[in-house]
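2024-03-11 09:14:02 DEBUG pipeline.ingest accepted 1 chain
2024-03-11 09:14:02 DEBUG pipeline.ingest length=88
2024-03-11 09:14:03 DEBUG pipeline.predict start
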Amino acid sequence: MGDRRGREHPARAGGSGLYHLAVAVPEAELIPVRLVNLNRVLPKDDSGARIARLPFKQPVALQEGESRASLLERARAAVVALDRAVLS
């Protein structure tokens, strides 16, 4: 994964806010998504928008008694799996 300047950084799972959302709204579906080709959708020049891909994975849900660290690690792993699928 990277940013608009092409710098690489590890996948992020949304931080502790994801855990707090899962606790506050247990019925919420936490769906991992990978935004692909954003640099083409939002180009720096004025050449117009293009098509991007938005692959999704199965929802990640908070398991009964699960720790914050465990949920965030599972969510991060889901995003990394999406990243690998997109790059292969």
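2024-03-11 09:14:41 DEBUG pipeline.report The chain has one domain: 16-87.
2024-03-11 09:14:41 DEBUG pipeline.predict end
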